[in-house]
Amino acid sequence: MTAQNTVPGAEQALPNGIEPADASEQMHVRLDKRGKLLARGEEPYPVTLERTHSLGEVRAKYPDLEPDTATGDVVGVVGRVVFVRNTGKLCFATLQEGDGTRLQAMLSLANVGDERLADWKSFVDLGDHVYIHGEVISSRRGELSVMADDWKMASKALRPLPTLHAELNEETRVRQRYVDLLMREEARQMVFTRAKITKSVRDTLDSHGYVEVETPMLNLIHGGAAARPFETHLNAFDQRMTLRIATELYLKRAVVGGIERVYEIGRVFRNEGVDSTHSPEFTTLECYEAYADQFTMAERMKEIILNAADVAGTRQIETPQGTIDLDGEWRWLAVYPGLSEAVGEEITPDTPLERLLEIGDRHGVKTDPLWTAEKAVVELFGDIVEPTLMNPTFVYDYPPSAQPLARPHRDDPRLIEAWDLIIGGMERGTAFSELIDPVIQRERLTEQSRLAAEGDDEAMQLDEDFLRALEYGAPPMGGIGLGIDRLVMLFTQAGIRETILFPLLKPEAN
Question: Which keywords does this chain's UniProt record carry (predicted)?
Fold first, then answer.
């Protein structure tokens, strides 16, 4: 015979193998409460509630209510219980909603009755979502509150909230970001700050007539950057494919087709190391503008970053190494003169590899005898000079192998027209006067293919369709690549795992 008030799923204990492997004693207590609610015909996860106001709306409507005041305004609110005090005939709870807004709920014997007050004490735990119906008042201490005349369970939490300082360590915060967002205002603000910065980047480009597009994430041929791709397989074509390492080559195709100011903000994937500044999947902006060059794109980049600084709230960024002043000079520093000054001797495109390796050894740089001289210069600059550049610096006049998609320098064929923007000792973005000569581009990509065949897993592949597009005639253009994650890191001074909402992590140990 079945009890009339039972609901499907009312069993108090879960079958073996169904409950979580890490179920604690507290979880078993909460599971028991869930079962008891179901057994008496109360849904612990109702589909809808008679919510009339958010907690924020109640606070906005009554910002300065005098102590011990009743408004006569009856509302239905929902929030997560983050504090509870059950004392005799009057219980208190603090409710919190998604943006962190909090509001007090009060449950008295006189208003809800003996049975419902007892149910509150029996069934409600920290972390539960509850529905409170009642009058908006101010307590004797002046705390804005809802004096309940009824309550319902909105969602029974089976896991207890962690202790903020004891259990919510960095690993837990990153791996269980949903808990981090619940517990820390800083985590929630990071989400909103990143959204504002990304919107600002879009707004800046839109104001210059750029068009946002989407390009393929699955590529037959990887290119657009020097990076190792992730490989996958497309069953429909029985074809090996890669996840994109950059958006560049498709965006340039769009410019060839007449979309003369184009950009994309999206995820790219590089099968590389993980550290405080690198993630295997990350978000980039790439934009291309016809009839622009590296200097035009430097103006665009400066505007993008200053506008982002304004929405982030400051153009002076405090760091452990000192203050970064975005309102100061945005310096231009050529690679070879900059390295020469740092090591105390003249370095030119003609400096032999052997001498460069000696300089690297002297300065504690891990070198590789298989490097070319051009590669050695770029690596030495990155290790010796780049970390010292705190204020915005456009590092330019790179050797050709540094960027196979940049055009030869207009004055010195031993260099290319490209720059990296260094702020706070870290590369934040890059730009080129783009290579549009299909003959030189074919030579560069053929050399990349040769390097790939010799075992360089970061070398680009020869993309015949991209070359065919250039052969139809691409207008002169400038292009920018900007790491959105690193831009957020600049303004928040947080590591990349904090700026990405759900970063890629190693699997949890069993």
Answer: Aminoacyl-tRNA synthetase, ATP-binding, Cytoplasm, Ligase, Magnesium, Metal-binding, Nucleotide-binding, Protein biosynthesis
